[in-house]
Amino acid sequence: MMEIFVRAPAAHQPAVSQAPEPDAVSGYAYPGQNMIVVLFRLGNQQYGLPLAVVHEIVRLPALIMLAGAPPALCGLLNLRGQHLPVLDGRVLVGEPALYDLNSQIVIAGRDRPELGLLVDQVHDVYTVAAERIMRIDRPEVAPFLTSVFNQVEGSALLFDLPALLASAHDVTKQKTKRAARRREPR
Which CATH class is domain 23-177? Predict the structure, then answer.
């Protein structure tokens, strides 16, 4: 049985002082606005995604495995009839692939669920003051990360949803091209 944690309706989320809503595409706050972040662990490091782009969190179910898939693609998740690519967060950040029955999948997307991110454990929803968020402007070093902030337990790095979506698209596209090449007569 799959245990599901669903995002609370907007009416139950804490209000942010008269600031505009987060950007609809990225889920990231505008300058001067606090951000609510879902925090999770990959290895020994904390990471997060803005609550605005997290749809739900599920325990690791049986995934549809894809033969010949790149290491970053764990497989497909059947989420109520919609098949979502699941990216391995550990592989994306350079950690060895490792998951067990305690691992969780963060379901994220813009207007609807678009992908799953396999993480070791989701552990908090945290409000970050805008002045504590520092942008990472080195995409060649951290292509999936946008920002970093400090908290009592240490630094947390924020994933970039558009970069994750592009990666999921690229990975599944590569998989399809490889399968098509194998089917071509020689």
Answer: mainly beta
